[in-house]
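Q: Structure for this?
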Amino acid sequence: MPNLSDLKNRIASVKSTRKITKAMQMVAAAKLRRAQEAAEAGRPYAERFNAVMGGLAASVGTSDGAPRLLAGTGSDQTQLLIVMTAERGLCGGFNGNIAKLAKAEAGKLIAAGKTVKILTVGKKGREAIKRDLGEHFIGHVDLSEVKSVGYANASDIAQDVLTRFDAGEFDVAKIYYSKFQSVISQIPTEQQIIPASFEAVEEDATASTSYDYEPSEEGILADLLPRGVATQIFSALLENGASEQGARMSAMDNATRNAGDMIDKLTIQYNRTRQAVITNELIEIISGAEAL
Amino acid sequence: MAMMQFELVSPERKLASAEVSEVQIPGAEGDFTAMPDHAPVITTLRPGYLTVVSPSGTEQYFVTGGFAEISSESATVLAERAYAKADMTSDLQAELLAEAEAHHAAAGTDASAKLVADMTAGVALT
């Protein structure tokens, strides 16, 4: 039987743990709101951008002179996986799920005889896949100093990726991140960014207005495609930010609840033990008195 | 007076959305003014000032690049980065100029040289 002071200490320590998880949950909730706002604020740009690009890509995409960013290099031998995760842990399965998806894809590609290169964004994902795929790493982007992700961060990553693409380091690039669905559900997602793929816009949207392009369609495409890469990375970073906070919030909510349950159990055990001790003492006193 | 819907969007947020009568846009091929019933055009931008004229007054924004989509009843400007004219401090101007020059030093192409020249001209208008 555990003694009373041990139990008391346990209860105190679980209580302070609960305080910490509760505080983290509230911080995550506040950050989540901000992250969601940022994600929402970024949506009009991305939507517009994709609409215009979709129209452009549809009219230029089939011609021979299409830029390589759109048409691809004609090969898919070397694939770059950009794995975007959080800088911190304690957010449930968030990092693990993204890493798992990327790992599965990398395994498939390697089995098919392709060359895999990995660029990691965020420390946690790097740690998670380092053991299995460490030799495929070609770079890492550290965002731990960044308080709120800005377009400049995405633009830097895109610049790095594009430089590598121009140098012929890879043929296909995919990003891995988590789509924010709700606080309890974030969906690990794979998205191809090079060669660019745009969701087909509705027919009537393009048919009703035929635009003049200044400079030429090709000129605009050449200018916009690199921006498209940055835009996609930026939206992914924003989604990821919201997902991370959402995941952390629900993970900490669970932890707080578990700590509460544990405290209840320990308190019952403590009270039982205390009563047992009192009963024992009474028995001793009574039997002592009887003996006299 | 005929009006058109104007929107200025940056990747991070929507900067302006209003009913306006005309928008002067620094297009890559030269400045032009979009008014209601303009022919549909998509153009890239060079660094410079975007002037928005609406019944409530005239506003100016500095854009570093991006593109504009003009249709007969709307003008949407998707700017890489955009600042209201009031926010254009000399520090910010110097920063933008330095960035353009750094880009030119790294790229060393005609396009990046043009960017520096456009940025210098655009900033000088402040």
